[in-house]
Amino acid sequence: MTDKTPLTLCLWYEGDAEEAAAFYAATFADSRVGAVHRAPADTPGNKEDDVLTVEFTLLGTPCIGLNGPPIFKHNESFSFQVHTDTQEETDRLWNAIVEGGGAESVCGWCKDKWGVSWQITPRVLTDVMTNPDKAAAKRAFAAMMTMKKIDIAAIEAAIKGD
Fold first, then answer.
1. Rounded Cα gap, residues 68 and 47, in angstroms
2. Most CB contacts within 10 A, which of 15, 29, 51, 120?
3. Residues 80-115, buried b or exposed e (16+ Cβ, 10 A)?
4. Same domain, 140 and 99
């Protein structure tokens, strides 16, 4: 995978890259687990033959999960923004991440059990932010600021001024 693509995202895990890749593949469309590579020798975070890296595709994007020692932590400075079209899709993805051992945050943000940040963002919200109707964008933004998981009906009502 990595020798044929111009960009591969590398995510650091503490021994559970294979579990994370399997979760992402089961949760997100156009996602799958690829090759699993084992450590050829002992490393600071692995013993020989432990899983060292896992190639996976996440929403069509090539990624690699690297198992390393617990020295680097995921944080909010990096996140995956996933665009959704329906409340059902928004709910399904949000719930899978949060109920799978993650945590809710605000404004459509949540974290999975590995600490990776996600923005589950309905397109209606991103579309209104680029709309020339600045008043509608302001109302939608104000509504979003009160939410954890985004409620599409509430955003649409705010856009209309209801």
1. 11
2. 120
3. bebebeeeebbbebbebbbeeebeebeebbbbbbbe
4. yes
Q: How confident is the model at residue 3 (pLDDT cuts 50, 70, 90)?
A: low
Q: What is the CATH number of the domain that holds 94?
A: 3.10.180.10
- Give 59-118 pLDDT, tens digit per residue: 999 999 999 999 999 999 999 999 999 999 999 999 999 999 999 999 999 999 999 999
Question: CA-to-CA distance for 105 and 87, rounded, in angstroms?
Answer: 18
In a domain, 121, yes or no: yes
For residue 72, tell me if it sits in a domain.
Answer: no
Pairing status of strand 79-84 against strand 51-58: unpaired
HSE (CB half, 13 Å, CA atoms) of 123? 5
Dihedral, 134, 139, 140, 145 alpha carbons, nearest 10: 120
Phi and psi at 140, nearest 5°, equal -65, -40
Amino acid, single-letter form, for residue 62: P
